[in-house]
Amino acid sequence: MRFLTILLTFAAFSFTSFGQDAKADAILDKLSKTIKDQKSFYLEFSSTTSNSASDSKSSFSGKGWVKGDKYFASFGDNTVISNGMKTWTIIKEEKTVYVTDADEDDEESVNPKKLMTIWETGFKSKYTKQTKLGSEAVHQIYLYPKKTSADYTYIVLYIGVDNNELKRVIMSMRDQTKMTYSLKKFTKNPSVEDSKFVFNESKYPGYTVIED
Asked: What ranges do the domains of the chain cover?
């Protein structure tokens, strides 16, 4: 489920020799500015997750709203809500709500805001090539974590050449999990009430709430 070892070795050598990639950084800086210029945004995506060690695979579709540090995401039967201070992870199958501080999200917890800005902290970037997703021309950029203790081994971004919009994210984890997110829709500055980003316990009768 991973790229060939020789490719990773070459990528590591490239970073040792040449450091951060100016072309990749220019594209990512432009994308970051586009995201930060929005007071809010809405996105729809599809995702697949596989693990070669356990021979497991799952897929789902999702959608998310982001407003500042707040976000609401639904994917499959699960929902994640954050008001910027607290995060509520709602697991329908377990009828359980897990409450954590917003700054305690782990690396495998991908919310809409993080998905759209994941390259900004803790990574070196490497522009690899211009390629295509379907009929659309895209830039392919690799991200490699600066910390050897990071859960990620690498992340691949696909960014539209014509519109500079994020189209796909592939994440490879050290536990042999691979996650692919494909962006289907992106709407700038939708109207969304702050109440959407607060957990309403009355909507989840019978659920157990567990706080860290």
From this structure: 5-211
Q: Specify the 3-state DSSP secondary structure of 183.
A: strand
Name the helix (H) or strand (E) containing 181: strand 177-188
Q: What angle do CA 207, 74, 91 make, to 5 degrees?
A: 30
Tokens of 146: 């600066």
CB 131 within 8 A of CB 116: no
CA–CA distance, 60 with 200 (Å, rounded to integer) = 24
Q: Which residues pair with 72 in a beta bridge?
A: 65, 81
Whole-model pTM: value is 0.81
What does DSSP assign to residue 27?
H
Specify whether domain 5-211 bears CATH 2.50.20.10. yes
Long-range contacts of 84-89 (CB under 8 A, 24+ apart): 84/197, 86/199, 88/199
Strands 96-101 and 208-211 turn out to be parallel
Give the model confidence (pLDDT) of 8-34 as tens digits: 333 333 333 344 589 999 999 999 999
